[in-house]
Design brief:
single chain, 493 residues, alpha/beta, Udp-n-acetylmuramoylalanyl-d-glutamate--2,6- Diaminopimelate Ligase, Chain: A, domain 1, Protein-Tyrosine Phosphatase, Chain A, 3 domains, eleven-stranded mixed beta sheet, six-stranded mixed beta sheet, 24 strands, globular
Length: 493
């Protein structure tokens, strides 16, 4: 693409000697600003791309996109674009550079504190049953069928996102399901996407180290519905109106709104049967009623399936096809993922890393245990990440104790914090007078071993916090660590 074509959308443009040049790459990393590239100076939390403008210019960048042009060398001969917000400019440039691939995809965006990954995978299952190859971009990975790419962020930066969508198109994708994080919405990473469906699952405490207040956190999530929806030919907002925060959501005029939940909603479900092997529920929708047999346990997964079915119906999938897809859905990796064993234990690995998510998963296990009249106990292994919101640490302990008979407090990803100090802050939240058994073990592998040694036949073990992750962050380094693999090794021993 010619530089002039790429920058035709920006009125405040100073041309140099490179107007007719071909753009080879767009980058926000000054180390990659070689000849033929456009460098976009992004202001981050720990660094500012404007500090590297001289380096980018010296490396031969064709153009510089900036918010502040005072640091551009006076002898720079390339094009200069000064904009109010370089993150938004990067999104526009990436979209144009990669040929706006999203316009050829049915895009579903899922946001909320919990449930994003599972719903994205459920949407994929429904669309696949419908005959639409569907790409997924989220926390676990980016994938389309057997093609997989690593994921560094829940929602990737604008360049990675647009490049990935172009790759999806080249592989025959008809749709894409996105986990849309509050960070991505706040940082304009997904502003150019023509979402046909937006799903809002719930909102509970998380990421307050970044957003500072729940109101700010909510405002970031709400942007998907108040600003981004409405660009597709038809757009539908799917809202969990059982959640108090979600009920406050402003939806852009002209966008269809569908509510879902257990009462007074467009998509209303009623659980008929529930155990550790899944749920059977009745679902009433604007397109008729059906029964859904879902082999993923927990009431929260009934909510997730209902939202995914609504997205399917918005895309023109029949209710029967959507329900059939859910009957074969056994869960996303690391989301109440079962660990097979011959000891008569019910072992699950889950990504729950907020107090609400942990409480939700444990409540589901408690309710299914009660419904099946099991005498088994619930043992919960969990911790909290370092260098993140410290206020939720005692709340995690409160949530764990609410439905657990035994808790094992251990390390999650301690990062640069003292893991013993993190554990102490978690333990402070254990309610006075709680009658369960409390164990502490810094080493996560040993904590898993302790849980297995403590458990007896019929017990439920929940290992929470890391889910699909196959690493543990100690200091600033990632070390191989998978809860599933280590549990399997320990069970063999």
């Amino acid at each position: 693409m010619k530089l002039a074509q790429l920058f035709s959308v920006f009125p405040q443009l100073r041309w140099g000697e490179t107007a007719g040049s071909d753009v080879q790459e767009i980058t926000q990393d000054s180390r990659q600003a070689k000849p033929g590239t456009v460098f976009v100076a992004i202001r981050g939390n720990s660094s500012d791309g404007h500090q590297f403008l001289s380096q980018a210019a010296a490396s031969g960048a064709l153009a510089l996109v900036v918010e502040d042009d005072s640091r551009i060398p006076v002898d720079y001969k390339g094009a200069v674009v000064k904009v109010p917000n370089t993150r938004r400019a990067l999104d526009v440039l990436a979209q144009r550079f990669y040929g706006n691939p999203a316009q050829n995809l049915f895009c579903v965006g899922v946001t909320g504190t919990n449930g994003k990954t599972t719903i994205a995978y459920m949407v994929e299952a429904i669309f696949t049953q419908f005959g639409w190859p569907t790409g997924v971009l989220g926390t676990i990975d980016h994938h389309l069928g057997k093609h997989k790419w690593e994921s560094a962020l829940t929602t990737p930066d604008a360049l990675t996102l647009q490049r990935r969508l172009k790759e999806f198109i080249s592989l025959g994708a008809r749709a894409a399901a996105f986990e849309v994080s509050s960070h991505a919405l706040d940082q304009s990473r997904a502003d150019s996407l023509p979402f046909a469906v937006g799903i809002f699952t719930n909102l509970t405490r998380d990421h307050l180290d970044y957003h500072h207040t729940m109101e700010s956190y909510f405002a970031a999530k709400e942007k998907l519905f108040s600003d981004l929806l409405g660009r597709a030919t038809t757009s539908v907002a799917v809202l969990n109106t059982d959640d108090a925060w979600v009920r406050k959501t402003r939806v852009k005029e002209g966008v269809t709104t569908w509510s879902y939940g257990q009462r007074a909603a467009d998509f209303t479900f009623r659980v008929l049967k529930q155990d550790l092997n899944g749920s059977l529920f009745h679902l009433s929708t604007p397109r008729g009623n059906t029964e859904v047999n879902l082999p993923s346990p927990g009431l929260h997964n009934v909510y997730n399936a209902t939202a995914a079915i609504a997205a399917g119906l918005a895309a023109g999938v029949s209710l029967e096809t959507a329900a059939m897809a859910m009957s074969g859905f056994y869960g996303a990796p690391g989301r109440l993922e079962k660990v097979p064993n011959s000891r008569g234990l019910h072992i699950f690995v889950d990504y729950a890393h907020t107090d609400d998510a942990l409480r939700t998963v444990l409540r589901a296990l408690h309710e299914t245990r009660t419904a099946s009249r099991s005498a088994g106990r619930i043992l919960t292994v969990f911790g909290c990440g370092g260098d993140r919101d410290r206020g939720k640490r005692p709340l995690m302990a409160q949530a764990a104790c609410e439905f657990s008979d035994v808790i094992v407090i251990t390390s999650d990803n301690p990062r640069t914090e003292d893991p013993q100090a993190i554990i102490a802050q978690i333990e402070a939240g254990v309610p006075t007078g709680w009658k369960g058994q409390r164990l502490m073990e810094i080493d996560r592998r040993q904590a898993l071993s302790t849980a297995l040694q403590t458990a007896r036949e019929g017990d439920v073990i929940l290992v929470a916090g890391k889910g699909h992750e196959d690493y543990q962050i100690l200091g600033t380094q990632k070390h191989p660590f998978s809860d599933q693999k280590i549990l399997t090794e320990l069970l063999k021993d």
